[in-house]
Design a protein that fits this description.
By secondary structure, this protein is mostly beta strands. Helix content is 9%, strand content 63%. The protein is elongated, with a radius of gyration of 24 Å. The chain has a single domain (29-202), classed as Porin (Beta Barrel), CATH 2.40.160.20. The chain has one helix and 15 strands, in the order H-E-E-E-E-E-E-E-E-E-E-E-E-E-E-E.
């Protein structure tokens, strides 16, 4: 029995459509994932006691981005970066200073369900915080750069084969020696939770 001529283009179109769908689903096979987000840095400075008094560092909000490289579908190396965060500093309840800092973090992540509709993960790593543009009324404030550990929990939710929405919370250990006019006044324990909402793109 001969096949209708009009049937052949339909079969070819269907095959092409299935082929394109397969390619689209395979798009995230690249090991690179880039996320761009907004982060709130919430310091835990309640226990900072210095010679100048009780120090409290306020919240800071800013843009952040991170790049993840997947060694396997479940294990990734992640680098967090951001524009410098500016935060106000209060001593004994009075706002008297401000500081900018840059807290890059290098983490090793474990992704529990890399093919699921909701993809949770955890991470652990190290951070090195750079302090800059320290300002205080009537004096010279200096904060020493800090190195410490970092932990993370997060989730990615894919909305297309390449684009995902995500959220994560990081704890960063930041302890900085503070000096006013060159004299050491104590250690500032910032230790923030960094809460981020982001959009991710798989290359």
């Amino acid at each position: 029995m001969s096949m209708p001529v009009s049937f052949v283009p339909s079969v070819l179109a269907l095959a092409l459509g299935l082929s394109l769908a397969s390619v689209a689903q395979a798009a995230p096979a690249s090991p690179w994932l880039v996320r761009l987000g907004v982060s709130d840095v919430a310091p835990d400075s309640d226990h900072s006691r210095t010679l100048a008094g009780d120090v409290d560092v306020e919240h800071g909000l800013g843009m952040s981005f991170n790049v993840a490289y997947f060694i396997t579908p479940q294990i990734a190396v992640d680098v967090l970066a951001a524009a410098p965060f500016k935060q106000d500093v209060a001593i004994n309840g009075s706002e008297v200073a401000s500081v900018k800092h840059l807290p890059p973090v290098l983490s090793l992540q474990y992704h529990f369900a890399p093919e699921a509709a909701i993809r949770p993960y955890v991470g652990a790593g190290v951070n090195y915080t750079l302090f800059m543009d320290e300002q205080i009324r009537g004096a010279d404030l200096t904060l020493k750069n800090s190195a410490g550990l970092a932990g993370q929990v997060g989730v990615d939710i894919p909305v297309t084969p390449r684009i995902s929405l995500g959220a994560d919370i990081r704890y960063i250990d930041i302890d900085s020696e503070a000096r006013v006019n060159g004299a050491r006044i104590g250690t500032l324990h910032i230790d923030p939770l960094v809460c981020t909402l982001n959009v991710g793109y798989h290359f």
